[in-house]
Design a protein that fits this description.
This protein is α/β, with parallel strands linked by helices and 414 residues long. 51% of the residues lie in helices and 7% in strands. It has 20 helices and 5 strands.
Length: 414
């Protein structure tokens, strides 16, 4: 069912429509090196084949998973500057720096047009030298309507498809398209599995129970440690920071649904508790700790609800990054000022020698002072006297903290 022309390619109209980049290349009879970046099953290999055939280029296909430099050099040997060939390198991100660099001479002299396909972010996985000689095109996950169209074509196609073998109602086709989750290859595999299942039962018409069996166990796109992984944890963090409990809960459950380690999510929630919520609601840190402990005790799926509770709570309460900002400011000051001495009046003096050297001299014990505060006493190194790093916000509990500190600082300056 692989498309044979750009017009048959589904879901990538931003690249294949009239006037779009790939259509323009075909119309002008030229082809340059390309990196196709997108999730599985969206047409990267198909587009490479169509472009090569449209320009009557010799075509070689390799997978970086199994191919080595010897295979690459052998494939590239057939290309010349007058008759370049297309080398399609699937999973190009699997090649290390040295292997990717081996592609450069042929790309540079024009004997090879490289078309690389990757599911990973080229910014991180492809050498800058390769990227500078290629255009990066982003392919989108297929929407359900596009996969539906492909499945309907497959069921009706007389020469390549399943015409006359199975009957699938529209709502059943919609279930397969949804289970494919943007992946045309997965959709076709599910349809093929349904056909095999029905054939084994001696039937041609699909029933709901057949769809239950064929689509069971599907998972949404996640790709641990890949682009989707980092995009989704970023979305969770920003939803919490942006006080959107619905968004926070959605992305948390998406990550768990995709197979993410729940305790990884728990550790990230802990980070959000002291980076984004802070002293606006110090209870958030304890709740996140408790949620992680609850998950460790209960496991999945019950323990996941504790993580969900923590995420929703943090998204709903006031936020403050004042402590986070203050800690960074202090770290910067330490680097700038070096190892400043501890003022003598706040040093400990457990020996006579230390007392003779004025350690602790003049120190005032706060609980003995009026109001429990020794106004005017300093605690920073002398060189940083008067410096204020922590600036509480007016959010949540931190508003009261700000009021108290303002009162104490005012009394100290009086």
């Amino acid at each position: 069912m692989r498309p044979q022309t750009l017009g048959e390619v589904l879901g990538q109209s931003h690249l294949t429509a009239d006037g779009a980049p790939l259509q323009a290349m075909v119309a002008e009879g030229r082809l340059q090196s390309i990196i196709f970046w997108g999730p599985p099953g969206v047409g990267k290999t198909t587009l490479a084949r169509i472009l090569a055939e449209a320009g009557s280029f010799a075509f070689a296909q390799l997978s970086a998973v199994t191919a080595g430099l010897k295979d690459v050099r052998s494939a590239m040997a057939s290309g010349t500057t007058s008759q370049p060939m297309v080398l399609f390198l699937d999973e190009i991100h699997r090649f290390n720096k040295a292997q990717q660099d081996a592609l450069l001479p042929a790309m540079e002299d024009g004997s090879v047009v490289l078309i690389g396909a990757t599911t990973e972010n080229p910014s991180f996985e492809i050498n800058n030298a390769v990227l500078s000689r290629a255009r990066v095109f982003v392919l989108k996950p297929l929407v359900a309507e596009s996969i539906m169209a492909l499945l309907q074509t497959a069921v009706a196609d007389q020469s390549r498809g399943l015409a006359g073998r199975i009957t699938v109602a529209e709502d059943q086709m919609q279930r397969i398209a949804a289970a494919a989750d943007g992946d045309a290859r997965r959709g076709l595999h599910l349809l093929d599995a349904l056909a095999a299942h029905l054939a084994a039962q001696g039937r041609a018409s699909a029933e709901s129970k057949d769809l239950d069996q064929v689509t069971a166990g599907g998972m949404r796109r996640f790709d641990k440690q890949g682009e989707d992984f980092y995009n989704q944890i970023s979305a969770l963090h920003k939803a919490v920071r942006g006080s959107d409990p619905d968004g926070a809960l959605y992305w948390l459950m998406r990550m768990l649904d995709g197979g993410c380690d729940p305790l990884y999510v728990g550790r990230r929630l802990l980070r959000m508790a002291f980076e984004d919520v802070g002293n606006a609601d110090p209870r958030a840190l304890g709740l996140c700790n408790d949620a992680c402990a609850a998950y460790e005790r209960l496991g999945s799926p019950e323990g996941e609800l504790a993580l969900a509770q923590a995420a929703v709570y943090m998204a709903s309460v006031p936020k403050s990054n004042a402590v986070y900002a203050a800690s960074k400011a202090v770290a910067k000051a330490i680097k700038a000022t070096g190892s400043l001495e501890v003022p003598k009046h706040i040093r400990n003096a457990p020996t006579k020698l230390m007392k003779d050297l004025d350690y602790g001299k003049g120190y005032r014990y706060d609980p003995d002072e009026a109001g429990g505060h020794a106004g005017g006493q300093t605690y920073l190194p002398d060189e940083l006297h008067g410096q204020q790093f922590y600036a509480p916000t007016d959010q949540g509990l931190e508003q009261r903290i700000a009021e108290r500190l303002a009162r104490l600082r005012g009394a100290s300056n009086a």
